[in-house]
Amino acid sequence: MRALRILLIVVVILGGLFVIADRVAVHFAQGEVADKLKTTENLASTPDVSIKGFPFLTQVASGELKDVEIGIKDYEADTGNTGTAGPQTIRIDNLKAQMKGVDFSGDYSSATASTATGTATIAYDELLKAAKSEPTQVFTGVKAQVIGLSDGGNGKIKVDVKVSALGQSQTYPVLSTVTVAGDTVKVHADNLPKLVVDLADSQMRSITDFQQTIDELPGGVKLDSVQAAQSGVEIAVKGSNVKLAG
User: Fold this and answer.
1) CA–CA–CA angle 137, 143, 147 (5° rounding)
2) Taxonomically, which superkingdom (predicted)?
3) Local confidence band at 108 (pLDDT 50, 70, 90 cut-offs)
């Protein structure tokens, strides 16, 4: 009995040491991946990296991590605008991605996920940069501009359009649908004020309807879907053979 107790104690101690070693190793790996990702994507701050699954050391031995979660607080995405029309970048908040089947090199200099899904938010003040926020003539003596974006409820964006004529102005709330087409977020007015429709529907839509291209998301993930929410436009992303580093 005494020998059995000693054996059990040894097993427990060794198990505890393995757990400690495993957690130390995963903490080190998370830091290495985060640093590589920061460098590869030229991020302003170090992202959060969480490697899931236990034990970690057996995953290392296999050369593949089953599940890795990435969190980037603020990401400046390229808009593809090379001239003066529109912003050069757009800020994407709280980008969170879940990577599955991550193959990596021994020093974490390269890492590629088989698949990736994620979510992020584009704040309304950021998306407003893509709209015509300066007064634009829609027909003689009448100008219009987008002065604000906000949550319209039921997945819609409320676009506040200010129409000015003869020294007077009126703001019209226009409910709009937001969609994704390729790498572009599109905002399309569901309806326009009747007076505006009667006089200049196409001219007004050149102001109320706008779009924003979003290029070069981290690792090459792509826009999947989009929906208006309280704090901004929520986007979903997905990808395959996504590079975390290298």
Assistant:
1) 120
2) Bacteria
3) low
